[in-house]
Structure formats: C-alpha cells, structure tokens
From TrEMBL, chains A, B:
UniProt cross-references to InterPro entries, sorted A to Z: Tscrpt_reg_PadR_C, Tscrpt_reg_PadR_N, WH-like_DNA-bd_sf, WH_DNA-bd_sf
Domain Transcription regulator PadR C-terminal: 98-179
All copies of domain Transcription regulator PadR N-terminal, residue ranges: 11-83
Coiled-coil annotated residue ranges, if any: none
Name of the featured protein: Regulator of phenolic acid metabolism padr (Transcriptional repressor padr)
Xref: PANTHER family: NEGATIVE TRANSCRIPTION REGULATOR PADR, TRANSCRIPTIONAL REGULATOR YQJI
Pfam families (alphabetical): PadR, Vir_act_alpha_C
Natural source organism: Lactiplantibacillus fabifermentans DSM 21115
Length: 182, 182
DNA sequence: TTAAAACGTGTTATTAATTACATGTTTTAA
DNA sequence: TTAAAACATGTAATTAATAACACGTTTTAA
C-alpha cells in the first residue's frame, strides 16, 4: 500500500530543479544523494521510460559533438504536482538502515575478543576518511552562509551526512578506548 | 565479487549463540537486530532450507503442546567456521543507508519553505519516541556494567542505535531552531 | 468458554536492486 | 596522435526483498 518506488520521486525531484539526462541522474547518486539513496543506471533508464509513458516527464534529443545523442529529460506539470505531493505527504516510516559492520560486532560475545581492536580500527580509518571527505565537500560547496541559502536542501543533506559520520567516528573511538588493555 | 547474501551470515550468527526456530529468527529482526538489518519470514524460511542443504545447519523437530511441530535449527561446525570467517574478514564496504526524509529535504530549495517546520516537527516526534524507546531498552536490558559484559555485542548494537538516534534528534532540533522566524 | 493474540511454517507473486552484458562517442591529457 | 577516461544509453540475467496468500496450533485474557 501507499508509496513505494521512491526512485521515481527522487528522479522527479532532480528533474524539477533542472532538465537532466539519464547519465546526469546516475551521477547524482554518486555524490550527495548517494549518502541517502542509491541507484544504478540500469535502474534509472527503465524508470525514465516509465515516467515518460505516464506523462510525468518528456524528453528532448540534443546532439553532442557530431552524432552523440543525449536525451534531456524535462518534468511536466503533472510531474511537478507529483513531487510536491511526495514532499508534502508525511514520512512516518523511519526508513530502516542496514549496517553490516555493527551486525558483526553483535556476534562478538565479549569485550575480550582479540579481533575487536583490529575490526574497530579498520572501520575507524574508513569512517575518518569519509568524514574528512565530507568536511572538505561542505567547505568547498558551501563556503559562505549565503551559499547555503542558494540550495538549502543540498546544504542540509551534506551537513546531515557529515554529522552522522562524525557520530560514527566518535562512537568507534570511544568503543576502542573502552576496550580492556592487553 | 565476494560476499553478498548477508542474511545467511546473520542467521548463522544467531544460531551460533543458541538453537532457534524460524519464528525465533524472524522475531530477532523485530528487536535490536532490526536496527541494522531487516528480514521477513518469507526470506528466512527459504534461507534456512538452503543453509541446511549446504550443511551449515541442521534441524531437530520438537513438539509443542499436542501436535505443533517446531523446527529447532542448530549450527554445524562448518557453519561455525563460516561465521568466524565472516566476522574476521574485513568490512570495507561502508554499507550505504537510505533515508527518504532527508531526501525530501534535499528537494526543498529554501529555508523559507513553509512546509519545513511541519516536516521537521513530524520527524522530531518520531525520532524522539524512538530514542526514548531505545533508552528504556538499554536501561532494562543492561542495568549494570556486569550485564553489558554478558553479551557485549548486544550492548554495542543497542548503544550504537541509541547514539545514532540521539544525533538525529539533535540535528532535527538544531535545523528547526535555525529556521527563519515567521 | 471462547475469541483474540501470539506462535509456528510454509509458498507465490511482485517489485526492487545489483551485476553483467553490450555498444558507441567525445574529450582530455600524455 | 592516440590511448584512456569520461560521456552516453540501453538490455538481460540474477538475486534480494516485500507483500500477499495460505494454513494450522497454542496460549492467554476477558
């Protein structure tokens, strides 16, 4: 019941900002969007077809260089209405997340387990790198308060991802520090 | 391409602690495990069959009451080796999460958007409730430091979920507070 | 005593998502 | 000038996941 297939709304949301190609949309999932939703091009191209057949988007063909055809997708008024509805409608689901690493920890019975330091250290490094990357991105994309206002949603998403990562790093550090000394 | 199908490892991990029925396993995903992985019984029962055919688990039939047959699954030594491998092997993937609400925010162009207060308030309530629930659980399940050591993994998972939720609540509060006053 | 809730196990159908296959063009840097 | 990287668009095959269908038992509280 109700609203699944969130990919369609994300695509519409992106096209609501500006016309984009399937390739552009795919790339969007590699950057900030990818922090909160993932999709491959093999999911995106068929979805674009479906959205077009339903009248939510249209496309225009442009030629890049000599003969490379790009399909630039535009949102229609019906599509815009659909995005508006999606955003306005409540989100009571609390989309559950998955975390393989935390699950592995769950099966570690005791804080004496000799594998713990190595496991935690590996994650600490990974998450520290990611945190650094997000920090840099936030600083370069939104250097001023004015820049934050130009695309507030983008700012929010990056900043939320950063805070989430920050928590993860701190938690790993604390958990490591709390381990019994050998 | 290495190791997908993480459900199998989670099931094995749980059976490594104690023999369980399919129903028990299903319930495990309703509680603490569910914070970091989800699975329905329609995924679990077939997976149990597969694991058994591969020799990682076996089952024993017990009768509950007059005639209700329960299949109690046990892990085999091969299965135990598989769990050990899974835990010991590195986790370099950083399992990406999904969050529909944050995505909706992404498509809000400006902090002047009249829908923002309502959207954020709804989430604040949901996450505050969840946080309270996790706090209570942590307090009842692990009232003492000694209790934490009895099943350290369980403690870690609950405590991590709580911290994550805490961050989410604080972020929502800050974002709400930073909104321009009407 | 009886109805509801919880226990218990399965399958089928559908949809979502990933991986792999498949092909070609344009740009950029060595 | 040429090879690699990036651009660009699709389909097919497989696997993961959810929702729905289906059935029966035991326990518990009204």
């Amino acid at each position: 019941m109700a609203q699944k297939n969130k990919l369609q709304f994300i695509i519409l949301g992106l096209l609501n900002q500006q016309p984009l190609t399937g390739y552009d949309l795919t790339k969007a999932f590699d950057s900030e969007i990818g922090e909160f939703w993932q999709a491959q091009h093999s999911q995106i191209y068929p979805q674009l077809k479906r959205l077009e057949s339903q009248g939510y988007i249209t496309h225009e063909i442009t030629i890049s260089g000599e003969k490379l055809e790009k399909k630039l997708y535009h949102i229609t008024p019906t599509g815009q209405a659909l995005v508006r509805d999606w955003i306005t409608t409540g989100t009571p689901e609390l989309t559950a997340s998955k975390d393989e690493f935390i699950l592995k920890l769950y099966f570690v019975q005791t804080n004496q387990d000799p594998r713990l330091p190595e496991m935690l250290t590996e994650q600490l490094q990974l998450h520290t790198e990611k945190l650094a990357h997000l920090k840099m991105r936030l600083k370069t994309v939104f250097p001023t308060v004015t820049a934050q206002k130009v695309h507030y949603g983008h700012y929010l998403i990056l900043q939320h991802a950063l805070g989430r990562e920050q928590y993860y790093v701190e938690w790993l550090q604390q958990t490591l520090a709390a381990l019994p000394t050998v």
